[in-house]
Each structure stands twice: as structure tokens, then as C-alpha cells.
Amino acid sequence: MQDLTVLVLEDEPFQRLVTVTALEKHLSSPVLQAADGDQAMAMLAASSFVDIVLCDLKMTGMDGLAFLRHASSSGKVGAVVLCSELDPILRQATVAMIHCLGLTYLGDLGKPFHLEGFSPLVKRYHAHRNAVPRLLSRAELPSPSDVQRGLDNGEFEAYYQPKVTLEGQRLVGAEVLARWTHPQWGVLSPAHFLTVMEQHNLIDRMFWHLFEQGLALHQQLAAQGRVVNLAFNLHPGQLACNTLTERIPVLLKRARVAPGRVMFEITESGLLSAPANSLENLVRLRMLGCGLAMDDFGAGYSSLDRLSELPFNQIKLDRTFVHKMQSQPRSAAIISCSVALARALDITLVLEGVETVEQQARLIELGGTLAQGFLFARPMPESHFIDFCMAQAQATGGAGTDE
Questions:
Q1: 352 labelled catalytic
Q2: Does residue 97 sit in the same domain as residue 212?
């Protein structure tokens, strides 16, 4: 194994000895060890960084849960591996807590500890570290004037992520996502500019840029015999705008795009305290003939209440349920129930975050039909999406899509 700093937090002396001895045979760095949370915090204070903490949870003194809470604020822990006999349901809640603390969770080795199970987790740790994109520092974050300049120069570009059928991977539509082709930093995701836009009321201007780009693409594909449904994200602040439902039909008519080919996605959390004019706009969009999707379904606190009273015709299940379904049976049960709920309500369900063929197969078993995720395609610029559509048309021999 590579040069890693590992801390073993285990109160049972023999188990700790076995674990540390096994690790020292494979690691070039000394293995840190502690019998309780207080000792572990002292080890952490004396270290510059600990790559992986192997953590038991139940112990006298400061237990593993308290240690993780304190350790998260230090910024010195790279990832956590659980080694516990805790009940599976309590372990799942602990994993959720680890994520909320901002720590990377690698897996659970249970007890007794087996070294062969640790090696794949080390690979996962390095893969995670290598996959995390470099975030801009505060000094590098774009200023409002820089964002304004980017909007003026047309640097914000629509990227498209396909929605496909789980079986056959047939294209049924695409979500339109924002990317900023920055002259200095290259292609930036919304994580780099969305906060600045929200703070300075620039979201609406970017949305109309993307909306017109999407409609132009729809026209181009339709001229080639390929009709694709497009989904645009609406910010809660936009949904409250009185002119929203006045401008959309004008642009649709000008581009000769049927309202039924356009979907608007609204996050569930954005609807928690939506004012009356927001709810009016939702009704008007549906009356116009456009689709409405509740995005990140299951991530908020009033999913079913909002779903029952608002005119959505699609729900997009939050990606966390797909990511957890192999390790957490309850997640698979929630997916199965969501499939049944969508059928009962006669609306479509899109399963987000599908990344592996194993997830795809399991989702088919659970009754899922539509999905979105890196397994099928990553967000892509317009030219690549056109090629994707043409390749789909050749593969299926069809021209249109239905969602």
C-alpha cells in the first residue's frame, strides 16, 4: 500500500493490537493508535494530517461518535472507515452523520477486522482524492463584474445530460445545465459561480441565455428529424417572477417549439416556502402545456405534501438513494415505493445518479424505467450532444423521443 497515515481507534486491546500489527506490515508509515476518543484527539492534534481513521463507535470515555464530531472541525481527517458491531440501521444513521460532518466515508469492515477488506478501501480513498476537482480559492472566485462580463460576452454555455430508458438506453430527453467557458479558468461548473449570481440577481439573465440556446438546438435537431425533450432548471427566485409565464410562450412560439417538449425542474427544497405567485406560475406553466419536474425528490421535508398539491408530472428521485441502495436495503425499498407512487399518480419517475451497470440492473429489478447518470452520459456541449442524438437515431432507427 502507499504511504498513508492511518489512525486506529479501538478500545479492545487485543483487537487493536491485531489491527495495528496487520497494517504495519503493509504501510511504510507508523500506524497511530488510540483506546478512546480523547487519546485519538491528542494523536490528531500532534499530527499534520491523518489520511484514514479506522473507527470503532462504542467505547468508554469519548466514544467514536463524539470523536468524529470533534475531528471533523480539525480539517485533519481525510476519510473514515467504520469497524463496529453496531446494528445495521444505527450504522446507516452513523454514515449519514459522517457525510453531514463533511468527512469522506469509505466503508465498514465490521468486526473482527480483516486486512483484505482494507485494501479496496485504500484504492477508493485514492480514487476519491484524485477525482475531487480543484476548487477555486476565495481569491480566485469570480467577482460580480467578472460574471457580468461573462454574460455580456456569451461565455455561459448550455450543456446537455441525456435522460434514457434503463432498458435499451434509448434517449428520451436531456437536462440543460449551465457551464461557464472562462477565458482564464476553462470550463466551470455552477459550484464556481452560482453563489455570486444568487447574491447579485444574475440567475435570471443566465437562465434566459440557456433557454434560448436550448430552443435553438431543438430547432436544429427538429430540422434533422430528431425531436428531443429538454428540461430547464428554474431557481426559486425566478419562479416568483410575474413575467416568467409571459416570456416563455413568446419564446416557444418564436422558436416553433411545442410547449409539451419543454420541462421545468424545480428543487423540492425551493418549494418549502414558495409564495403564492410562485404557485400561480407553476399552474400557468402546466396550463401552457409545459412539463414540471420535482427535482431531488426525497431530499427535503415535504415531498409528499407538495407532490399532492402541486401540478408536477415528473419526479426525479434524489441520487443519494441510488448510491446507497447496494449497502442500505431501505434505500432500495424507497426506490421501489417511488416507482409505485409514480405509477399510481400517473407521472414519470427519473432515477438520478446511475453510475454502474450493477445499479442499472438493480433499478430495472425494482421497476425503474427512466434514468440519468454518468453510466449513460456526462453533461456535454451542444456539438457533442448533437452527435449523441444522431448516434441514437442510427441505433434505434427512430426519429422522435417520448418522455
A1: yes
A2: no
